[in-house]
Every structure is written in structure tokens, then in C-alpha cells.
Specification:
The chain has one helix and 24 strands. The protein is mainly beta.
Amino acid sequence: MFFAVDYAVDNFIQCAKLAQTIPNNGGGVSGIAALGDEMFVVRWNNANLQVYKHNSDDMTIQRNVYVGAGTNTLRSVAACELNQCLYVSEQNSQMIHKVSPVTNNTVKRWSVGGQPFGVTVNSAHNLLVACSNTHKVQEYTTDGALLREINLQPDVTYPGHVVQLRGDEFGITQYSSVFRYCEVGSDGKIVKSTGSGQMSSPYGFIVSKGGKGFVADYGNNRILLLNSKSFSVEQLPDAFNVGFNTPYCIHFDARAGVMYVGEFGSGRMLCFKK
């Protein structure tokens, strides 16, 4: 999951090495999520979720999960362990698809009234959606009922990804007008921000309760290590200097000590392990 949990981030940062590079298997990677022992990958020009074995040396596609006819603008995927389902955002149709990994198809879909980019599941097992062109964050139940809509303040535009942090604050990457990572309250106002002038089109990210996180700095072809307590960007070890090409999304499994980075331009996935 992407909501803030107590990752052993410091240990991972010091020990992790690039273990695998999974080549392009059908388009730019825009979302990665794991459920059980399977990993689900969204690709931009593909109407299917590709399914791999999670944390395995065998990174061949095991099967495909069909999302929808003509679906070619899939933006993100999130997994919910409680409800045993996946949520996939589709940009152009402005839809959320609730997908069953058991029946291999969409079991429900609903409109969000704005282009949905990043999606995550929070600690209440609800779905959070970053609505890019309407500059909002929406929270839904697993059945698609809208619980609340947060109108981001005028200087927070084009959210690329959203994660619920401690209490009722949200981490957001902003990829247009101003490139940055910021935290906002439930009123949509900025609590604090960083990265202006340092980031270029940041999208996916993770954040820990301990205050460390990774940000996919798409436009600068790198992964940034963010200290969300001091709101400063820190240096990553040389093991992460692997020549990224438009990194877009990040999936981190602290228990397994594995992090996947999906690249939008190259279509590769890079797997780092302790």
C-alpha cells in the first residue's frame, strides 16, 4: 500500500542494490501495485493489467487482467488488501475501475468528474484520487460512493499523486506550473512544501511515518530522497545512480525489502533489493 506506514527506510537505503531491470513489455509504466504474491502493472497504451510474481527472480508476465475495451490512458493502480481488489484510474474517460484479481475483470466503474491520475488506498481502506485537471482530491468508498472532495488552493494545481499522511493531511506532487512536493490539510491549504526549483514534473512517491520518502522526479530522470520532516532533499547512495529514464511510479514493500520503479518513457521497471 502507499499510505504512510513505518517502513525500515534507512536500512533499505543503505543496503539496497539494483537487482533486476525488467524490459519494456508493452508501453510506458504508469502504475505498480502488489496484492498477495502478485504484482500488477499498468501500462499507458494497454487495456490490461499485467501480472507478475511479486518479489521473484522470474519477472515474466504470468497473465493479464482485462480492464476495459479501448482503455489506453490508464494512469495508476492501487491495491486494497481488506477488499481484495485493485483500483485503476483512466485519464481520458475520467473513470475509476474496480478490478477483481480473482475473476480477472472490472467489477465496478464510476466517473470522478475530472482526469484521475494517482490513486492510493488510505488507512480507512478508502480510495484517494488525485484529479489533475480539476485540482482536487477525492475520497471514495470501495463501492464508489464519494465521501469528500478537497478543493486544493489556487497555488496547488495539477496534482499528480496523493497519499494520506498522519491525521488528516495529504502529501501531493504537483507537476505543472510549479514543480514540487507539498503537504496540505483537509481544507486544501498548503501546510508546507519543498522541491520548487529542484524537481521537474514529479509524479509517484512514497512517504514513511519516520519522515523519509522517495519521489519520482520524472523530468530530471532521477529518484529523490525526501526528508518530509525537515522538508529537504537528501543524497541517495551511489547504488541508486543507475541512469533512470523518466521514472514515473514507485512501489515499495518494506517487509520484503523490495522497491520497484516504473519508467514512463522507456517502459522499463527497475527492481532494487536489500
